[in-house]
C-alpha cells in the first residue's frame, strides 16, 4: 500500500519563495507594471524575458525594494517572501537587500581590493566576530562564486583590475557573502564575452542548489539554458509563466509564441 504523504511536508515542498499579487508599478503617471501575479519557486532559476521596455527590470527591482531609490516610482500590491510582506513598514530595506541580493548588468566592483569587495557586506552587517571569521566568509564566498582558484594569490589587488567575467563573479561573491536566500540578476552577462558568459551560466546552475535565483535576460537561449521557469512580460503585463520547456515549446498565448519565434522584440 502507498504511504500517505505527510501533508505538512507536501505543502512545504510546493511553497513559493516569493509570492507577488496584483503588483502595480508607476513612474509618475506611467503605469509600468500592470496587475502582475507570480509565484517564484525556491532553489530554482526563474527567467524574466520580453521585449525591451516591457518592465522586466522594473518588476525584478520590486523584489528587493530597489525601486525605493527612485523618487517617482510607486509600487502597489503585495509581495511576500517566505510569507512576509516585504513592503511592510517594519521591514528594513537594508536587511531585505542582504536577504535578496542583486547582481547588475555591468559588473560594478567597489574600487577596493578583491578581499575588501567580498568583506564589505559582512563588515557592515557585523557578521564576523574576528578576522579569522571574516577570512572564512571571504574564502567560502569566492569558492561558491567559482573564483577562488583564480584570485587566491591576489586578494589584495583591486577588484577593478580583473577581467569583466571575473568582476561579475566577484559581484556574485559579494552578494553571496551576506548569506542571501534570493539572488536577483539583471542581465548579468550582457557585458561579457561568450566564454565569460558560459562560466557565469555554469555558476548560476550550481547556485540554484542553495539559492532562489531570478534572472532578467534579453537572450532566449540563455533563459532556455539556465532557467527552470520562465515568465514572459509584454507592455508591463505578465503574459505567461510556466516551466521553461513549456514556454519555449508549447506557449499558451499568441504573444509568447510571436516573441519566441522572433516575430517581434
Ligand atoms: N527610472 C525610471 N524612470 C521613469 N521611467 C522608467 C524608469 N525605469 C524604467 N522606466 C520605464 O518603465 C518601463 C519599463 O522599463 P524597464 O526598464 O523595466 O523594462 P525592461 O523590460 O527591463 O527593458 P530593457 O529590456 O530595455 O532593460 C519603460 O517604459 C521605461 O521607460
Automatic annotation (TrEMBL):
Keywords: ATP-binding, Nucleotide-binding, Phosphate transport, Transport. It holds the Pfam family ABC_tran. One of its GO terms (cellular component) is membrane. It comes from the Bacteria. Residues 18-260 form the ABC transporter domain. GO terms for biological process: phosphate ion transmembrane transport. GO terms for molecular function: ATP binding; ATP hydrolysis activity; phosphate transmembrane transporter activity. PROSITE patterns: ABC_TRANSPORTER_1 (PS00211), ABC_TRANSPORTER_2 (PS50893). InterPro entries: AAA+_ATPase, ABC_transporter-like_ATP-bd, ABC_transporter-like_CS, P-loop_NTPase, PstB-like. CDD domains: ABC_PstB_phosphate_transporter. Belongs to the ABC transporter superfamily. This is Phosphate ABC transporter ATP-binding protein (PhoT family).
Amino acid at each position: 500500500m502507498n504511504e500517505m504523504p505527510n501533508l505538512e511536508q507536501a505543502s512545504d515542498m510546493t511553497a513559493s519563495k516569493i509570492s507577488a499579487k496584483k503588483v502595480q508599478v508607476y513612474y509618475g503617471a506611467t503605469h509600468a507594471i500592470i496587475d502582475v501575479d507570480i509565484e517564484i519557486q525556491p532553489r530554482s532559476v526563474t527567467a524574466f524575458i520580453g521585449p525591451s521596455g516591457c518592465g522586466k527590470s522594473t518588476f525584478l527591482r520590486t523584489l528587493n525594494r530597489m525601486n525605493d531609490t527612485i523618487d517617482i516610482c510607486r509600487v502597489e500590491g503585495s509581495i511576500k517572501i517566505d510569507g512576509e510582506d516585504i513592503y511592510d513598514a517594519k521591514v528594513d530595506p537594508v536587511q531585505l537587500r542582504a536577504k535578496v541580493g542583486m547582481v547588475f548588468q555591468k559588473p560594478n566592483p567597489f574600487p577596493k581590493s578583491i578581499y575588501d569587495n567580498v568583506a564589505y557586506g559582512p563588515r557592515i552587517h557585523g557578521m564576523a566576530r574576528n578576522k579569522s571569521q571574516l577570512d572564512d566568509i571571504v574564502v567560502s564566498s569566492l569558492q561558491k562564486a567559482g573564483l577562488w582558484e583564480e584570485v587566491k594569490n591576489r586578494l589584495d589587488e583591486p577588484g577593478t583590475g580583473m577581467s569583466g567575467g571575473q568582476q561579475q563573479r566577484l559581484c556574485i561573491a559579494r552578494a553571496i557573502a551576506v548569506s542571501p536566500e534570493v539572488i536577483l540578476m539583471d542581465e548579468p552577462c550582457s557585458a561579457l564575452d561568450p566564454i565569460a558568459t558560459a562560466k557565469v551560466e555554469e555558476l548560476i546552475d550550481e547556485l540554484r542548489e542553495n539559492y532562489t535565483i531570478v534572472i532578467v535576460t534579453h537572450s532566449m537561449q540563455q533563459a532556455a539554458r539556465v532557467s527552470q521557469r520562465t515568465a514572459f512580460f509584454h507592455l508591463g503585463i505578465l503574459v505567461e509563466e510556466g516551466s521553461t520547456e513549456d514556454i519555449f515549446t508549447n506557449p499558451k498565448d499568441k504573444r509568447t509564441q510571436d516573441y519566441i519565434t522572433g516575430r517581434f522584440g
